[in-house]
Write a structure and sequence with these properties.
The protein is an alpha/beta fold. It contains 12 helices and 9 strands.
Length: 454
Amino acid sequence: MRSIQHILLASCLSFSALAQSNLTPAQRDSLKQATVADHNNMLQQLGIAADQLRKGPSGNPKDPNAANSSEEKVNKYTLPDPLVLKNGQKVKNAKDWFEKRRPEIVADFESEIYGRMPANIPAVKWQLVSTKDTLVGNQAIREKTLKGIVDNSTYPAIRVEISLILATPLAAKGAVPVVIEFSFPRSQFNPGNVQAIGMGSAGEPTWQEQLISRGWGYAVIAPASIQADNGAGLTHGIIGLVNKGAHRKPEDWGALRAWGWGASRVIDYLETDKDVDTKKLAIEGLSRYGKAAAVAMAFEPRIALGFIGSSGAGGVKLLRRIFGEQVENLASSGAYHWFSGTFIKYASKLTADDLPVDAHQLVALCAPRPIFISAGSPEVEGQWGDAKGMFLAAAHAGPVYRLLGKKDMGTTEFPLLGMPLINGDIAYRQHAGGHSTGPNWSTWIAWASRYWGL
């Protein structure tokens, strides 16, 4: 019988597997070979030999190289101080933060982890595909299917169309708050057939029903319509379009930053839609899409609230903390495409301790906007995502929130399973379920209502 952690790892990888479900075995093998080739190309650009790349730990605790899942074996580490400038001076006020320290942290994340967005990204033109009045559960909605057509006149060989579904309560009398979700499309050929993995359970309304019943709306983005979730796709999608089909350079953006760019373009559209209150926009995502949601919020100031689900390493888990998934896993051919090529060097010539930033500073980039961090049970979800590592990142972002006149979580002590820390502008809850934000939706909605006054 496979372990819970091994099942979790398999479920995370299944996001990519599901995206390839329409491929033949030969096509899947070709995709894998193209991914490895692109990964090798980046290693060559970095001057790293394949045997210099450290192998990441296994998500199966029975393997000889199993990832650490014991608090007693966690290493000692020192985190960069988010309120100390590179010249050693301390940040004293909000002006120092926004004008001096925050730009330093942004630059480090761009150069060392997520990559820089190019200056020449083409424009997006939104097209309404269809509008229909329908039901989600027993809630009446107006559902719009849209596509964002990216100008590919500079390189017609690559076409990018962002798939978006927008649903608002049919009974709404005016503009409503909207939660933007990164979600996995069940069919690449039916952009309307999208549903988050792990959402909803017997006896409770789905997250969509809960939002609509509150009088809010939701917008679902298919990330793969922006950028494929594999290394082979880096010469396609929006990254490939900008590079005109060529391989990335080491500091170029990865998929997480590209998905975040797509969310920003969705907001551009929402600002033109009279049914949407664009002062009340939230972002939500699970797993790799939780990473994308955190990155999107950090770099997009128009996002008012965050709901970051089980984002793990590369999201809001501390990278220096040796527990669960590690930098070496992220730098492998299976995940490197989420990041800049430069990030790979921290699994070879350097280590996570050499990073100029860590996840607590990603959370801090969201300040002063409220952010809610969600995790699942260690017995059900597993330990791969490191729920405590995500909590600690939130805790260490607290000084920045306090500097800006906001409330932190109020504690640095890891809470018991199910205990909500929701009195501050940084919130956290580890629910008793699996790899899902589902059991935390009602808690998040109640927390978000404090800010949206609804």
